[in-house]
């Protein structure tokens, strides 16, 4: 047996020693100290905070008395116990054999142990290692209290409450309300910044007006066909079949229209010089048709040639103008038919520039379309209103075959007579209504109830005069709208309206029984989004062309842009 070393009261027994039995005498000494540990019951978790401990610095190595060759080797190494998997708190172990073996007094739980006199140590609850020194204790930071493990498990593992319709609805409201609000804000901004629609004028006054009195009844001839209208207002009536028929020299109206269209002149202009060719000179002596006294080599202005065409109704002048304009009569006839198509004369056919051929046919309605177009030229109107004239180089005064030009208000346009056509007259007349000239246009075709061609022509002229005088008496005016009367509104396109009023009386031309239509327009300029009261924003009209009457319309009050509410709720 090995003798104990003096001064080592806590030296443990050899590794092979068993408590209660002496060690064999022949066992060799061990190279390090051993400790006998006693298993102890696992303590119940305590409701106190745990402390994360720092592994203590091992004590200085002591010389192994049984191993003189390794005096600096540590006698033992502290290995902390494994952390309990279910408990956050480690209980203080009871006194063990190691403490008895070393002679150290166990430290009760929760108290401060002492290892060396004068050096305070602290043993935290649950710590199984050596006691902590005072310096070590100061380096430990106190941990905040933690809830019990059962409470932690309950807090972290508690399942969510069951879903109910109310809970689901509340959750959906919380999710969708911000999204809906965002969409509404974006929608409001977009609506406010969208371009405003263009304001438009809308008629609120009655759209039509009918003149008082019994329907006007004109003295229509008992034969042939014809029609009368007030330019720009409407038709006074018509008679006969309205079918294509020969028109004789009335065809020269289209010849003049094409010439003025290709070579326009106006005012005091007379146009270029035209030289009389051999054919035109020879045709001057034809006894079976109306001609102008022309001689080969003479030169006449365009205006003079038109006078020779329309006043004495020279067929040779018509053919000369056709060759001068188009190079040939055939090419010119093509132009005549093209012009008729442009004017909407769908029932007219031209086969020669003079109208001598019976295959040149038209209707009263088509001839009124041509007359309305050609009388817009002031040179033409001057020529057809001339009863007689002297043209230099002709050698004699020429007379117009329209013998009623001297009658009040009668003017133009063209006579025409032939065996197949009978007597014809395309005419215009004026009447003064409210201080303004109003043009009446009419035609009488197919007067046959006479013996000679001259008589047939005179019959057509007299029948035309009766229609002219009755029309002049029957055409009148009526106050349809008074000054200051509200006739419409400016619609801002979003439901807002601003009234507009007439700035003067509106008195259209008409006759008993005539129904006219009112039209409210902006005169080609856009209505503004904002304007002061009294600003003219359009006009109210009745009729078209020279027969049109109108009055400006102005704002009755200030015009303002639509409000934010109207912008927000618009859908278009």
Report on this model:
This protein has helices at residues 97-102, 134-139, 149-157, 165-193, 252-262, 278-283, 302-310, 315-326, 329-342, 364-374, 378-384, 453-474, 564-569, and strands at 114-116, 119-122, 132-133, 200-203, 208-210, 225-230, 234-239, 245-246, 273-275, 299-301, 361-362, 388-390, 397-399, 410-418, 422-433, 436-447, 476-477, 486-491, 497-502, 509-510, 515-521, 536-542, 549-555. It is elongated, with a radius of gyration of 63 Å. The model is unreliable at 1-25, 63-75, 85-93 and 95-119 (pLDDT under 50). Helix 5 packs parallel to helix 8 (315-326) and helix 7 packs antiparallel against helix 8. A hairpin with a 3-residue loop joins strand 14 (410-418) and strand 15 (422-433). It has a seven-stranded antiparallel β-sheet with strand order 4-18-19-23-22-21-5, with no helix packed on it. Strands 7-6-16-15-14 form a five-stranded antiparallel β-sheet, sandwiched between helices. Strands 1-2-3 form a three-stranded antiparallel β-sheet. It has 572 residues and is α+β, with helices and mostly antiparallel strands.
